[in-house]
Amino acid sequence: MSTTIDMKLNRANLGLEEKLPIKVVQFGEGNFLRAFVDYAFQQLNTTSKFNAGVAIVQPIDRGMVEMLNEQDGLYTLFLKGVQKGKEIQKTELITTIQKSVNPYVDFQQYLDLAKEDALEFIISNTTESGIDYVESDTMDMKPPSSFPAKLTLLLLERFNHFNGSDAKGVTIIPCELINHNSEALKETLLKYAALWSLDQKFITWLHNSCSFHSTLVDRIVPGYPKDDIEAYNVQLNYKDNLIVAAEVFFLWVIEGGKELKEKLPFHTTDLDVKIVDDMQPYRTRKVRILNGAHTSMVPFSLLYGNETVKETVDNAFTGAFVNKAIFEEINDTLPMEKAELDSFAEAVLDRFRNPFIKHKLADIALNSISKFKVRVLPSLLEFESKNGKLPTHLTFALACLIRFYKGTWKGSPLPINDSDTMVVAFQQIWKETSIQTVATAALQQTDFWDEDLTKVPSLTKAIAYALDEIETNGIEQGLANFSKKY
Prior knowledge:
This protein has 21 helices and 14 strands. By secondary structure, the protein is of the alpha/beta class. The chain folds into two domains: 266 residues, NAD(P)-binding Rossmann-like Domain (Rossmann fold), CATH 3.40.50.720; 206 residues, N-(1-d-carboxylethyl)-l-norvaline Dehydrogenase, domain 2 (Orthogonal Bundle), CATH 1.10.1040. Strands 5-2-1-6-7-8 form a six-stranded parallel beta sheet, with helices on both faces. It has a three-stranded mixed beta sheet with strand order 4-3-10. A three-stranded mixed beta sheet has the order 9-11-12, with no helix packed on it. It is globular. The chain starts with 10 loop residues before the first helix and ends with a helix.
């Protein structure tokens, strides 16, 4: 039986009259930023009296600013997950957002954010395409279409309002999921400065008074739990239309030095925020372990008969495969301390076991070939180069991937989700008359792998043997026989 809560969620009803100064302007109001960045600044406010309020900017013409304003920027974050084998559930009312602005409705209100005396940080997450340069954007558009063009105007307004004061430069921390995101953003801002013939003094201020910091962000945020919202509502004594559900795991790697660590004292919190000189080892670790394990397990586990990631890691047979692929093969190729790699890998497996997030293997099978090339193949090749032999489980995973793209298994269709070009290419490959020819044809496709994999010692023979075992004996016995030989 459902319970109706009538109390409106706002600051007055909860007795939260005190407002925080605007230290952060955040481009993006979606679930991820609210469950990640705004949550992080709240922890900072709690542990170190950081006193940072956030002003939200809606980066596109459709968004949730109106809903946020109706709740005075308040919302409830439900954290659910597994840590070291134990289920964890936490609930927290997030209060860091002080105002939300839609530049498509009130452009002057947007520009006025530049005049906030306490402003120190610009944060963004506008999707991977959000940092694009749109040459048709002009200075007199209110607003221009792209996020970097909007940001250029905001920074120019701040430069002019404070007469180019070095003290009023800002720290810019983009969270878009592209490598070297701050470099890409700065380059795009400078393109607009050139396009619009902006004063060289502003460009110098941008270089010398503002700092740009690339990031790696990692937290799974399913967002608004519409399928079981009643189970969440009954835990609250107010009506919240902006509930966010997220996993417990949190990792934020930011490139920066001592000065940034002093500006952002995350060491006072229990959050895993790493401010480092070079974030690339952490990015590689995530791509190879988290994403690599995901990608390598999908065809293998689907052919075995599992449907979800959790089933895969909980099953004795498929779970052992994933463990060995990570701890014995992937981790062996990464240039970090073994203890740190193993600790991260254990956290990854906890995330895979999260009972509150249902990851269907079929849903993450999208573009499996291109994902394997980026996430798994480097580990396979580096293991072979380092050890002079092929990694058993990653090699078998590659064979499962090739077999998966045949399209059917035991008379039923497989959930292939790839480009027509890729699908047709594998249809042709699987018309070959022998397994050896199939293996050769698949591995020599430089369009798939960016190199001819038949040149890797013993790989073609190993893949052909694995494919034959899979066809003849199935996944479980096939892996057992393959493991004896490779």
